Amino acid sequence: QRPSINIRAIKPNEPVTARMEFRVRRDLLVPNLEVVVSACMVTLRGQPRTAVAHCRLPFMLAAELTQPVHSAVYKLVFDCPSPPSSLLALFDDMTYPQPPASNGWELPQEVQGSLNPHIVSFRFRGGGEGTVLLAKSGRIAIQTSEFAQLGLLLYELERRLQNLRAQETGSASGVLSFRDPLPLHDYFILLDDHFALRCHLRDLRKELEDRTQQYRAVEKRLLVRFRDRNPSPLQHLDFLLNVSYQQVCTVCDGIVEAEKALMAVAQHLTAATHLITRLTKYRFGLDDRTSGSLCEAFSTGIAIEDTASCGWEERCEAAMHHLLKTCLSTKDKERDRDRSVGELSMPEDVGRLKKRITSVIDRLSQGVSLHSDLDPSAPALASRPSITHQNTDAPSVTAPPPSQPAVTQQQHAERPSDNGGGSSSSNKVAVSSHHHQLPPVIEGQDEGESM
């Protein structure tokens, strides 16, 4: 629900201040902290005007500092050309709030006693923990208990590193680089969960339509008998009416629960989509323009824009199809064809969407820009060999660097022994995946430096 404030009139040279409150729901994951504020107005001449401003909410609204957590399920490691000297200084607003007693809140004693400049852990408001680790070699690792939480933690880490580097050198670019395989396997698991819930919700709505039609038919027959001067026996029609009513109520309750679960998974998929686009940017060195176009193609506003008639899967598949037929096309003839994708409809499965996402990332790994159809100096894709290896069950893509592949299954940190292989999605949404032990990410590190 988007809040709005109505202001009747604004006098010249007299600014108006409107107060808005932001609260975090405990049952949903926070995918990002970006807020878009738009002001729609009408001038004295009756001309409409619109002003848009972007702002960012504090990270403290989505997470709080906690004691260091060394074990996690998901882990990513980055190279940092200009690493910070201390994570406590990087997250100074979380570790040392100023002033500490302004709102009656301060860090608990057990958290203050466990502060470490090389490891900082957070507890997310929606559940789960996340940790940022700084090695002596300068590499930075982030690890969380849920895959989607990596997106928010990476966003906040990147923003703070950009501010730190801008203060030191005046440039905020190139703060992180990523060399490990892209975690498409875990991303596709969330995609499957989201699509399965959409199908389940569609079936429930169809069943509700059948049950309500049955209820109206039984009700109509009862009304006909009640209006008759010499009514015939009901023949258990009243019992059938009660049963139909109970079925309608049961299906309605199921729809409400399914919509809640779909919203929770959509939040996770939104955060995971932001994560994949950022990792793609770091992995292949994409510029800001190409990275922005990739985010637009992925349609990252999943939780807000998703509807029953046209969902995220069909929009994303159409965008991937458009990219593969235009700027990422392997043949010049395909660029001259009709670029329309036709009417969007809910697919039977997401296998084709996975293949197209894999193909787009595969071609980006070859150094082709999303704007190559407009830039004559961009490298031609037709002259490069194809390196795509697609698998419907476990999609993967390999990259040109000889050292390691570009896209394979996600490497996980060692799962805690008491975790028991539980679900990694909130609101009782099951997300199944297979995990294995992650080898040391930094060679030659001691126990105190271990990530």
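Next protein, fold it too.
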Amino acid sequence: RVGMRASTGSAGLRVRGGGAEMLEGSAGVEAPLEEVYAAIADTQPEQQAAYSSWIGGVDTEAEAAAAAAAGCILDVGSGTLTYAADFAPPELCFDLLYCRHGKTTGNTEPRVYQGFVDEPENALNEVGLAQAEEAAERLEALGVAPDLVVLSPLSRASETGMAWVRRHPEAAGLVETWDETAEMRFGAWDNVKVKDLPADSICHLFYLAQNALVRSAAPYTRPADGAAFESESFVQLLTRMGAVLDKLEARMAPLAAERAAAGKPPPLVLMYGHSMAGAALGVLTGNGKRVDGEGYLGFDGKYILPNATPVYLHRCR
């Protein structure tokens, strides 16, 4: 959680009418990001009030049922998720190694909602390209031999994965792009800087309060062709990524049975994806991270997977 205090000092920042703006006399100098973020954080009561009004138009019973299907309890008032008392990680027949993409401009300050977008600014930057190679080297050191390599259709993730694939031309036939593994859809918030969104918007509860229900009312419109993409909540993302696990289980089951009969290790799936998609898989596989000092789950901010760092989300016993 971002913990900052608002300031109206020399930078002249204040919040008015739900947005951050400069006071007269600031000579057009933009306030330091820390102050902008502080003002947004201090507006959380207004964000919560807006959420309380907005939630009345949401089918919360359906969202709660979706959360329950993922093994979680949804607190509608706060939008937070906790593991159900009887939650048990799925007994998957394969090992799952997940790698979030390398850094992009959108991962660099000022922060951006970077979801189901694939514009030039969402591509790997120089740091991200180097991180992709470093991730490939880590996998080399581990000596992994995946039976399936799944890539998100978004270039920042697929390019991170291709850094390993290019080192293993023999594995080219194992590589598949699955559209359903793409990043969370933030709708109209996508590719918008956090500092440029109204300070009292419910969007800020996503990272300030780990609210799994908030989502944009308007879609994201892709500049290239005008195609519109509706938003989804984190709870809805859990449902989507749960279907990915089911698809993988069905796909790997015959090979897993064959391996088991021969006394060999289970299949390995290597997946390249994103922060929120990875967080959803983490929750589903029992690797969800609890917010410090709280019982509910965190999925954004410091709770996300690091860039270009392969992590086992499941290993067969």
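About the second fold: The chain has eight helices and 13 strands.
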